[in-house]
Design goal:
Blueprint: H1 2-19, H2 24-39, H3 50-59, H4 64-76, H5 82-85, H6 93-101, E1 102-106, E2 115-122, H7 133-149, E3 155-161, H8 167-171, H9 175-186, E4 191-198, H10 205-212, H11 217-220, E5 223-225, H12 254-267, H13 269-273, H14 293-297
Parallel strand pairs: 2-3, 3-4, 4-5
Antiparallel strand pairs: 1-2
GO molecular function, one term: phosphatidylinositol bisphosphate binding
Domain CRAL-TRIO: 95-254
Organism: Diaphorina citri (Asian citrus psyllid)
Length: 310
């Protein structure tokens, strides 16, 4: 499935590049320029692949300066979110429990416009087993792995299926967790096309009203909340690429994709456990660094504390 997703990204890349006003040859030159700058950023992981640099250029609509700053943020901000980026062991008790409790998947086929689609849905309806930060962690690990494999498309849909949710589940999703989810999404080189909630009960609407408080007006307009189920997804995403249990025509179900991603993360366990590949070393930050983590973190600059959207 990962190889299929990589292939899908590669097939859509020329159109994605054309959309942002560049081409494969120019992207290669821009990656070389970004690499030269990156080599002087001694606080950042120096084993970072060209596909990662290229993904940030694409995600930042080929703006070199924005890509530099967002790359720095991607590696530097992680230490402020230990619940998401700390101890990323896919075989840990917490993440194994999350795999058994919540379907957390990325579909292996992009939409026709080159958007990635990820989904979250309760697997075990017992609210005592529900830990809302763990699927966010698993989702970010998937994004990290995809970044390491290929130049990813910059557009993204997230689907949250709230079927079987109860007030006890919703009570665990406090404003800090919502903010953490949105913050960690903002570090990625992706532009959010839609946050889609289906099977949403009335008691959960308050949660999404809270979520809107952390969003720009434009992003808020891309949150779609439906009481209906899978049938409404076709308003946003071609039905054929969805899992079979959501009316798709592919060879995968939500269950099989959840199993696949769990196994794939474990296969890359050593890579995830090598923290030097994923985090900055602030003791090595150059004195003349233009990016000041603490300032941007509290919104002095304000460039990246909002999710990127088209």
């Amino acid at each position: 499935m990962l190889s299929r997703l990589v292939k899908s990204h590669e097939e859509h890349l020329p159109a994605v590049l054309e959309e942002i006003g560049t081409n494969p040859e120019q992207l290669k030159k821009d990656v070389a320029s970004l690499r030269e700058w990156y080599s002087y950023q001694t606080h950042l992981p120096q084993d970072t692949k060209d596909c990662v640099l290229a993904s940030f250029l694409v995600g930042c609509k080929n703006s070199m300066e924005i890509a530099k700053r967002k790359l720095d943020m991607f590696y530097s901000e992680r230490r402020h979110y230990p619940d998401i980026y700390g101890s990323c062991d896919p075989a840990s008790h917490e993440l194994t429990k999350s795999y058994k409790t919540i379907y957390t998947i990325t579909i292996p086929t992009l939409t026709p416009d080159g958007s990635t689609v990820s989904m979250l849905k309760l697997k075990n309806p017992d609210p005592d087993q529900y830990a809302p930060l763990d699927p966010i962690k698993r989702l970010n690990m998937m994004y990290d792995l995809m970044l390491d494999q290929t130049i990813i498309s910059s557009k993204n849909y997230l689907i949250y299926d709230y079927i079987d949710s109860t007030p006890a589940h919703v009570a665990k999703v406090n404003p800090l967790i919502v903010k953490t989810h949105l913050d960690t999404l903002s570090f990625l080189p992706v532009r959010v096309k839609g946050l889609i909630i289906i099977n949403c009960p009335k008691f959960a609407v308050t949660t999404y009203n809270i979520m809107r408080n952390f969003m720009s007006e434009k992003l808020s307009s891309r949150v779609h909340v439906y009481a209906e189920g899978a049938s409404v997804l076709s308003k946003h995403i071609p039905q054929e690429i969805l899992p079979k249990d959501y009316g798709g025509t592919g060879d995968y179900t939500l269950e099989s994709l959840n199993d696949y991603w769990h196994d794939t993360l474990i296969e890359h366990r050593d890579w995830f456990l090598n923290e030097s590949l994923h985090n900055s070393d602030e003791s090595k930050r150059p004195a003349d660094s233009k990016y000041k983590v603490e300032d941007d973190r509290f919104g002095v600059d304000g460039s990246f504390k909002k999710l990127a959207i088209d």
